[in-house]
UniProtKB/TrEMBL annotation:
InterPro entries: MetalloPept_cat_dom_sf, Peptidase_M35
Molecular function per GO: metal ion binding; metalloendopeptidase activity
Signal peptide start-end: 1-21
Active site: E218
Domain of life assignment: Eukaryota
Matches recorded under Pfam families: Peptidase_M35 (PF02102)
Keyword Magnesium found: no
Note on how the cofactor is bound: Binds 1 zinc ion per subunit.
List of residues binding Zn(2+): H217, H221, D233
Protein name (database record): Uncharacterized protein
Keywords in alphabetical order: Metal-binding, Signal, Zinc
Amino acid sequence: MQVKSAFSALVFCAILTPTWAGWSIDRSCGPVTGNIEKAIKNIMKWPAEVTKSLGKDKDVNEFAARLFNTADFEYVKDIISKIGAQSAMGNSQVDDPIIYCTQDRLEERIRASNQEKYYYDTLGKFTVDKDTYEGCEDKDTFGYTTAFWEKTKSGKGQTTMQLCPKYLKDIGQTPILDGKGKPQNKKLHDSYEKLKMMHGTDIHINDFAGLELTLFHEFVHTPKVRPKPQIMDHGYFWNDATGLSKDKALDNAESYALLALGTWLINQRAAHIQSDGTIEWLEDELAMKKRTAQPWTA
């Protein structure tokens, strides 16, 4: 099921020098933990694909130029590399994100000044507004990332990456891609043939939006990628992301996530991503071998 959504990035305090460690998964994810680990293992291969191809491969360059409205990719490569640096599992720093799958740790509270409802994260020591909480609980938000990592009277804050319960249920909690970049989500599509049955011959990059793309998107929001201000949200999915100005695209988490996913598909699955986001696959065996022997600029 394709879920239309707005990812949310909440920016609080972020005034520390990043030191690289990793990420961890909270026990609230329960049986989904293994799938999250698998999805993160998949996406942490994507930055290397971007690094070796961006600026060198004409197909990747054209794809990136559509997303960022620029041919100067040094800043983009720097952002992507900082995501790859978080590949290790671990939680030694307060800016190492903890991934949650429920919002059970959030307590409902009322502000005395205006009787406004909000939610307090008892573990991360920060607040979440009513709309963000409800959007994640039973509406159309995929996830959100919060950062609050300065010492407070109530304790030390924590960078939190929230995967929303309804979203996890809708997508079947399964990574879309296997290690070779083939679709494997049993609920969305068992094979390329099933994709074609669902979407016709025009398979779109949005059809790959699932656990991997969501997680990569949220990693872009983390303070270790850009401390203050963190990278924001200006457009979601292909049409919105490619409609942004250069400045907004460089500050848009979805743009980086789509770049990483698309580069992986180009390099590993011999995909040609057209200007409208639809995908053509090189079917000639020799052409595919040339395409996947990166960098290929023929």
